[in-house]
Amino acid sequence: MKFVIISDIHIGKEKEHKGVIRKMSRHSLPFLDEFITRINNEIKPPFVINLGDVINDITHDIDVDNLKIAFDSFKKLNCPIYNLVGNHEQKTISVEELEILFNHKPLYYSFDQGDYHFIALFSERKELLIDDSQKNWLSEDLNNTSKKTLIFVHHSLADQDLTGNFWFEGLPEGCLIKNRKEIRKIIENSKKVIAVFNGHLHWNKMDVHNGIPYFTIQSLVENFKNEDIPSNSYAIIELSDDLIKVDIQGSDSQCYLHEIFNT
Length: 263
Known about the structure:
By secondary structure, the chain is an alpha/beta fold. It has one domain: Metallo-dependent phosphatases (Purple Acid Phosphatase, chain A, domain 2), CATH 3.60.21. Helices cover 25% and strands 24% of the residues. The chain is globular. The mean pLDDT is 97.
């Protein structure tokens, strides 16, 4: 099976951080159009996963408009897209309104495709938590599937070494889910999860906890070298019986291979 992940599109106004424009949002919509064209004409996956932060938050009304612009673009895809909520969507828009805009209540859910089960989690922006109701749902959902499972979430569930990260070096509370060890224990105890994916940190990374790989996918528009070269990143995921391949496209390309354990 092959599917595609896109993350941190950041439609909106560009803002300096540490004196640098790192989110090159002027490229968000052109890159998204190019992405959709390649999906439809070349890759042709059964679905796409969007890991969140579709927008750069500005004001409530502008943020809603920018979300709708993105969702209108997604309608051009010839396959389904499964959307996760990032922290920027939560900055000015309430959870209740996001449930309407994303057409998911609650904002976490699961689905099956072929021989695999897929879970989309919702990480709350302020405390970076997977709350108790979602945690209980996750345990039950994993109990109810017999399929190999992949999990998606905006923030990271791994204990990442943040050395060298432009955004979060020395700031784990800004990017790592607070109760990640508890969630990882649920994941590990299920004996079904073969990979976990997140965005948010604006770099490519693979961490492994107890045999399970945790992949971080680069933003679509990150100025990753501070040289005004946007990453134009998205990931093509290929699954076989014994191997997972994460092939990250664009200027900041990377490829990870990880052997899948037998479930």
